[in-house]
Amino acid sequence: MMSWLFFTQAAYALLGASVAGIVLDRYDFNRNLLLLCFLLLNAIFLAVIPICRTLWLLILSTAAAGFSVGILDTATNVQLIAIHGKKVSPYLQALYFSYGFGAFVSPLIAEPFLSGSPHPDIGLPAAKRGNPLPYGGMGHRSHHKLSHRPTNHMRDTFNSGSEEYKSEVEVAYWIIALAHLPVVVGLAYIVIADKWAEHKLRQAAAKAKAEKERRSSDIPDAEIQGVTTKVHLDKETLKKPSLCDNPNKTQVLCITFWTSFLVFLYDGMQGSYGGYVYTYAVKSSLRMTSAQGAFLTSVFWGSLALGRLVSIPIALFLSPAVMLLVDLIGCLVSSLLMLVFRASESALWMGTSTFGLFMSNVFPTSVALAEQYFNVTGTVTCMFVVSAAIGEMIIPLIVGKVFDYVGPMSFLAEGCILCFAAFGAYLAVLIIGKGAATHEISRREVLGEGKDDSEEDEGKPVRDTEQDSDQPSFKDKSPNR
C-alpha cells in the first residue's frame, strides 16, 4: 500500500512539473499568483492527508499534493530565472539549500509525535488480530482490501490487551501545513502590491491621455506612449520567447539535451549513493557495523546540505561554468579515491564527505549555466526537472540490480562511470554553448531595449542644425523602442 502512495506522489509530481513548464510558456499570467494558489493548495492537502479514512481518499490527497509540489518546483525555478536572468546562480543555490534544509527539519518536527513503536497487531497472524491494521490492512493475503469499519487510524487510540497504542502523527502534518502560511502571506502581499502598482500606472496613463486631449498637441505622442506601455513593462520583461521561436534552435536543443542528461546523471548518482552507501559499508570487505553505516549515510546527506549553503556566497564570485567544473572534478576525484583505496575505511569516510560536498550544487549550477547561453523558458526548466526526477528513479534501480548480481565492488565502479559520463555531458554543453552564446549576444545587441541606441544617438554629433532649429525636439522615452 505504501509503495502505491510513493508511486502516486512521484508520478503526479512529474505531471505537475510538465504541466507547469507548458502552461508558463503558453499563457501570460501572474506567476506570483500561480505560486500563491498552489502553495496554499499544497498546505490544504497536507492538512487533509492524516484525516483520510479510506485508502483511495488518501491516494487522491497524496496525488493532489504531489501535483502541487511539481507545479511549485518548476514555477519557482522559472520565476527566479525570469527575475534575475544571468545573475540567477546564487539565488538558485539558495533555493536548493532551502529544499535540503526543509528535508532536514521535517523529520525533526515529526519525531516527537511518532509513537516510537509499530502498531501492536503488526507481525501477528491475521486470525489473532483484534483490530484492523492502519488504513484497513488485514494481512498479507488481503492487504489491498479496506476495513468494513472505517476508522481514522492516524488519530484514534488502539487497544491491544492491557496496552494502549496512540499515534499523533497528524499533528506533525498540521504543523508543516501551518508553516506554509508565512510564505503564503508574503506572496499575497507581492501579488496585491503588483496589482496596486499596475492600477496606479493605468491611472497615470489615463491622466496623461486626458491632459493631451485638453492641451491638444502640446504633449508629443511619444510621452503618452511611454506612460501607456509602462503599464505592461513587468509582463514584457518577464516574457521570454518559446523554445521553438529561438532563431538558434538547433544549438538550444542540443544544450537543453546535454544539460538534461547531466542533471539526469546527477540526481541518479545522488539517489543511488544516498540509498546504497549503507549497504556497501556493511556488506563490502570493510564490514562496518550498522551504526557506522547509518552514520556514514548521515555524513553524506549532511555534507550535501553544507555544500548547498557554502555555494551561495561562492556563486557571487565564480561563473557557473567554473563552479560546475570544480564540482564535477571533485565528484570524479572522490569516486576514484574510494575505488582505488576501497580497502581503506578512512578513504570511504573522506570520499563520502567530499562526494556529497561537490555534488550538492550540480543541478542549480547546470540550470544557471544554460541560462548563460539562452533564455531558459518554462518548457526548458520542465525538461530539467523531469529529467532529474527520472534519473532519481531509474539509476538507483539499476545500481541496486547490479549490486545484487555483481557484488559491492560494482557500487563504486558505477559511481566512477556516472561521474565520467557527467563530465562528458558538461564538455558537450561548453562546446555547443560557445556558438550559442555568440549568437545570443549578437541578437540582443540588434534587438536592444533602446537604451543603448539612445546613448549612441546622444554621443553622435548633431548635424543639420539649421534645418532642425525651428522644429521642437523630443526624445522618445518609450521602454519598447
TrEMBL record:
Region (Disordered): 139-158, 443-481
UniProt xrefs under InterPro entries: MFS, MFS_trans_sf
Membrane-spanning intervals of the chain: 6-24, 33-49, 55-76, 88-110, 171-192, 293-316, 322-341, 348-370, 376-399, 411-433
Keyword terms: Membrane, Transmembrane, Transmembrane helix
Record has Membrane as a keyword: yes
One Pfam assignment: MFS_1
Bias (Basic residues): 140-152
PANTHER family: MAJOR FACILITATOR SUPERFAMILY DOMAIN-CONTAINING PROTEIN 4A, SODIUM-DEPENDENT GLUCOSE TRANSPORTER 1
Name of this protein: Major facilitator superfamily domain-containing protein 4A
Organism: Stylophora pistillata (Smooth cauliflower coral)
